[in-house]
Structures are given as C-alpha cells and as structure tokens.
Design brief:
The chain has 471 residues and is an alpha/beta fold. The protein has two domains: 197 residues, Aspartate Aminotransferase, domain 1 (Alpha-Beta Complex), CATH 3.90.1150; 251 residues, Type I PLP-dependent aspartate aminotransferase-like (Major domain) (Aspartate Aminotransferase, domain 2). It contains 16 helices and 14 strands. The chain is globular and about 60 Å long.
Length: 471
C-alpha cells in the first residue's frame, strides 16, 4: 500500500501554478456580520448549543455539510422539471436510473433523508437481541438499530480512536474483532455489518478497497449481509484513488462502483455527497427486502415513488449523483478541507490526522486537557469559537455519544472532537483563512477556559437540543 499523499495546499499538486475551484459563482447570499455583543446574547439564549442558534446570527456556518451545499445550474434547472404527480413521477425513474447506474443496486426506495432509510432497514432486518457490528457508531444509525432491539458493536481498527495516527485508512474494519463477535454471539444473531464510508465520527476517515473485499469474504463465509452507509462514499472513493495501490489511474466513478459492488445494499443521506437540500434513499439487491421496504415506506414516508421528496428534489438529486463523482469536483472539495487542516497543523493546533474528506476535526481533549470530559470540553470549544467570530461548529464527543440505554450513564468516547464541516461549493479560501484565524485565537486563550454543565437533556439524540450553562 502506498503512503498517503497529503499536501499542505491543493495548489502544490500543480507545481508553482495556483489552483482554482472548478466552478463560477452565479448567485450570492449576503452574510450578517455580527458584533461581539450580539454573539454573547445569541449563544446564551441558545444554551451554549450551536444547534439552537438562529442561522441569521451565524457568520461562517460549519455546523454540517448536510443539505448546505450549493446546487449547480443543472440542478437548479432540474428543479423546474419537477413532475409533482402523486404516483409514478418521472423524476423518480430518473433517480432510480441514477442509483442503478452509479451505485449498481437493483432496487431503490426514496426517503425524505438518510435517517428515514436507516429506520426502514433497521425495522426490516433487525430482531430484538441482535448485534450489529460496524466501523464506529453514527448517532442516528445506532439509535435506529437500538430502537429495533439491536445492540451496536464497534469493530473499527484501533487506529481510528487515535487522533494522531496517520494510518491512511482509519475507517477499516478490524476483521479479528468481527470474527470474535461472530464466535461469541453466532452469525445468526448478526443481521448485517454496518459499514460507513467515510467514517464521520472518526474524523471523515476512509475504508480501503482491500479491506471491504476482505470483509465481503468474511461475511460470505457466515452468510451475513453487508450494508453500506453511502452518505460520503464519493469522498471515500477519492481517497482510494489517492492512497491505495492500483487505483491512481482509475476514475473516481469506477472506483466508487467497484466498492459498492462488494455490498448487498446501502442507505444514503443525499444531502451530503449529492448536494441537495433534502432527500435520501435505501437501495438493496434482495427483492424480498425491497418488497418489505417498498411497503413500509408508504406508512412512514410517502408513496414508494416519492418517499417524502417532491419531484423537483428527486430530479436535482439524480443530477447531483452524477456531479458528485466528477474527479475535478472531488479534488477541489477535499483540497479545500485539506487547506484548512494544514493551516491549523502548521500553527500546532491539535486536529485529527490525516485530514478527512468533509471536515476538519479539532481535538478538544488535547486543546482543553484541564476540562474533564463530564464538563463537555468539545461543547465548550464550539461556544468559544462562536463567541470569537460567529463561526458555528458541531460537538462530536460525549454529548453526541449520549447515554448507555442499559446503565443510563454517559458514554465516554475516546475521541472528544469539534467538527468544522465544510459545505460543498459554498465558501471561498478567504472563509477558510478567517476560520483558521478564529480557531487559533481561541486556542491561544485555552488555559483560561472552563467547562459547562448540562441543564436540559432530551431523551434522544441530545446533542441537537440539549442546553448548557457555564460552570
């Protein structure tokens, strides 16, 4: 396996020549430049939870890359071609064709977004008492698995939990861990392996082609299904092209299809890679599972030919699937994320290495070593970043991990991170410079910071709505 190539800036890939994004700006949205007093008021009213801020009070919004990307002129034109028939919309068939062409799955059911698809597959194949191994948890995925009566088991390689490890494929499944689980509970208790590419909670880290093919062989040995969370799979394919031997000369779309071909199906939050405002889908190769999903989607989402999306959204999504796999687009998209990460690394600010595909993850545990995890260091860091510049980031640590449903105690993840998620085709390099300077300003004041206490905690997915107060 070749060593990962991680240049300081994307421009260095072109020698001395500068680089530019492979698109032009046609429409702009004004940003309200907030004052320090306005930010003090806003974050206090939001209970020090950036999810509860009003967007009009945010200057640079790096909360998420989900549904926040800029659609292309082709996608915007597609919105005008919406067939809003309740049944049999032609846009559904365009979307179905795009999924079959680029992902390769036989059957597709649309949903309003990714968690709708997670709900469907969890309810269809998980029985109470089952175990679902995966390469690190994701919040909504694990919750749907638990609500269906299953227990998630982390089988990712150990390097994924080490923020300073430079392993090029930290999203890989540890096959020995998976084998140990099979030996312990039996293959009949494992309805599927839950594979994410890339792994969000590990810092946007990819899975190698060699690993997924070895995983496929292990699953086949025991008759276990392999399902893919394809939300950011385009970025995963780009990393394979860049880092894995034998793939440097293959187009991303070809690598992408080869990876998907090793799996039995996938769910997708189309708001990420495909650059649409809303939408998702579940796709499988098993006709019996598809029939159950097509029946269930009518109950929870909408008719099987729209699944919670308008026709216009399905048309934009079908176009976005194709655009998401353009090599130039991915080179610029990941290059911008890398640019920010290398700026911060040059200043000695602790981040997850290597820089991931969709975001830079700040290591709050190393930035605030004096703040105990039960005092929410990552949540504290998000509040301080907002106060400094109006920058909105997301906590990905103990708050996101939630509580153990059996003990009621906080889960204590090894990674206590703050995610700076970069929307696709939205911000310029100048915005990345401002972001980096804000992080440095907060980092320079790190020893003065104190933690937070939680004053309101919802029952599920508490990071969305929890409220905090300063200690």
């Amino acid at each position: 396996m070749s060593e990962p190539m991680i240049p300081k800036t994307m421009g260095q890939q072109f020698g001395r020549r500068s680089w530019a994004e492979p698109w032009k700006i046609k429409i702009v949205e004004p940003i309200h430049m907030t004052s320090s007093a306005e930010r003090q008021r806003a974050i206090a009213e939001a209970g020090y939870n950036t999810f509860l801020l009003r967007s009009e009070d945010v200057t640079i919004d790096l909360l998420t890359d989900s549904g926040t990307g800029a659609m292309s002129d082709r996608q915007l034109a597609g919105l005008m071609l919406g067939d809003e028939a309740y049944a049999g919309s032609r846009n559904f068939y365009h979307l179905e064709e795009a999924v079959r062409t680029y992902y390769g799955y036989k059957y597709m059911v649309p949903t309003h977004q990714g968690r709708g698809a997670e709900h469907l597959i969890s309810q269809i194949v998980i029985k109470p008492g089952d175990f679902i191994p995966g390469n690190m948890y994701f919040t909504t995925t694990r919750l749907h698995q638990e609500l269906a009566g299953g227990t998630f088991v982390d089988v990712i390689i150990d390097e994924a939990h080490d923020p300073i490890s430079e392993h090029p494929f930290k999203g890989n499944v540890d096959l020995d861990k998976l084998q140990a689980l099979i030996d312990k509970v039996g293959a009949e208790k494992i309805p599927y392996v839950s594979l994410a590419g890339t792994v969000n909670m590990a810092g946007g880290q990819p899975v190698s082609m060699a690993n997924v093919k070895a995983l496929r062989r292990l699953c086949d040995r025991y008759g276990i299904r392999l399902y893919l969370d394809a939300t950011r799979m385009a970025e995963n394919a780009y990393f394979i092209q860049e880092r894995e031997e034998g793939y440097a000369d293959k187009p991303v779309a070809e690598i992408f299809k080869e990876f998907c071909d090793t799996t039995d199906g996938a769910w997708m939050s189309a708001k990420k890679d495909s650059m649409v405002s809303i939408g998702g889908w579940l796709a499988v190769n098993d006709e019996e599972i598809f029939d159950k999903a097509r029946n269930m989607v009518v109950v929870y989402e909408g008719l099987h030919t729209y699944g919670g999306m308008a026709g216009r959204d399905m048309e934009a999504l079908a176009i976005g699937i194709e655009e998401s796999l353009h090599d130039d687009h991915l080179r610029a998209r990941i290059g911008q994320v890398r640019y920010l990460g290398e700026l911060l690394s040059d200043w000695g600010i602790p981040i997850v290495r290597p820089v991931g595909g969709h975001a830079v993850f700040l290591d709050a545990r190393r930035i605030y070593p004096h703040i105990p995890q039960d005092q929410f260091p990552a949540q504290t860091l998000t509040a301080e970043l907002y106060l400094d510049s109006g920058l909105r980031a997301m906590e990905r640590g103990i708050v996101s991990a939630g509580r153990d449903p059996k003990t009621g105690e906080h889960r204590h993840p090894k990674l206590e991170l703050v995610r700076l998620a970069i929307p696709r085709r939205v911000y310029t390099q100048a915005h990345m410079d401002v972001t980096a300077e804000s992080v440095k300003a907060v980092y320079d004041m790190r020893e003065q910071m104190r933690g937070l206490k939680m004053v309101y905690e919802p029952a599920y997915l508490r990071f969305f709505q929890a409220r905090f107060a300063r200690l």
